[in-house]
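Example record

The entry below shows one chain as it appears in the dataset: sequence first, then structure tokens.
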Amino acid sequence: MTFIYLQIKLLLIKYIFIIILLISNKCLDVQILIKLHIMGGYFSLCKSKQLKKNQNHLRSKIANDLANEFSYLQSPQKYFDAPLNKEILFTEKTLDLEVCSEKTLDLEVFTNTCDSLGVGNSLNNDKGKNAEVSIQVNCQIENTEKKNSDSELMEKENELDKNLISCSFDKSVINWKKSNRYSFNLSSEIFSVIRLNSENIACCTLDNSITIWNETSASIVSTLFGHSNVVNALLMFDKDILISGGNDDLIKVWNWKEKSMLFELDKHNDCINCLVKLSDSIFASGGQDNEINIWNIYEGLCVRTLQDNGPVNCILQYFSQKDNLPLLLSGGDQKIKLWNWKTGICIKTIHAHESKIYSMIIINTNQLVSSGKDKLIKIWDLNNYNCLKTFKGHTRGVSCLIKLNDEEFASGSGDCTIKIWNHVNNICRTTLNGHTDAVLSLCI
């Protein structure tokens, strides 16, 4: 009891001393004491949370590995404390390819709002300088009386006629079609999503599995296990055959309807990043080992290896009318390469981006769209290899692209948004807000 009384007396003396300092206006000393008191509580809290940190060590390690690869995953689940559309209403979206001309952004209001959401890293906070604004919008902070009408407007903008599906590191999948909109969550972070048929989609997740989801029944049909590390890439080869590639350096071939693995292919010496079908019997895989391997799926053999100078992040099939050849396009560190995959010869190298290239799509017979870690989306003429347009608007790396129709394509980014671009009219038609972490894959 004597010890308890002594502790109480010491606490009283400390707080009386703080009050005396306040009265004497010795603010600096008070701040020091308060900080020391808070730090003592902080260290106690850290000690109590140590067990939980140890339990989550594996998940944190994987997230940190991802952070080294993708700048927008430096701290998963951290960038947004609340959905962006609850604070800001975008009333117009006009893309400015080179010169800011029509709408102007109130940078001070926009920066303050983003700072309150924990974003702000991509904006220049120096008020004395003119920050470069790539996409011009009018920003309005929602008033209390307008919350209902603004919410209805944002909900309308977040709907599409196209059956666009997105997946995110926030463990969610969203179908944005207005007549069939739905979302669901899995137990682990999702890296890729592809369509298998009119009713089923497949997702690969951080727990090394592949989940088959039926849209009609809104339920999981099956879960495929076989990889010993994260699955990065999926390819629907035909109506029954699904191909996967992962961080275990292996390619696995599945009959997804029978829920069985048929066989595996082992040639890569590092993570497999991407897969693409080239013909009825041939597909290609690109990896972190700087190789593109060409496979005959029915023979189970690697028929050719294309040696790149760096990791291969994305690959794409393209028939060149100019050369009258089926080509393979690869994207890696800054460069796009055009390959004759039948001979193994690199035909052309394009310096496309200032950092890693994450995704590529073909939007017509001779135009390619690429995106990367530099937050840019570029359209290329594959006849003369010139850059036709540069689209700016995302505030973090652009991880995925998909063609919607002859005039529009969609982009997903580490800024948690999906943007719909009209490349004919050169505008960003709308921005879809719904995910709370990086959007990593899109399919239709």
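Notes for this example: Helices lie at 2-23, 27-48, 50-55, 57-69, 107-116, 147-157. The two ends are 71 Å apart (CA to CA).
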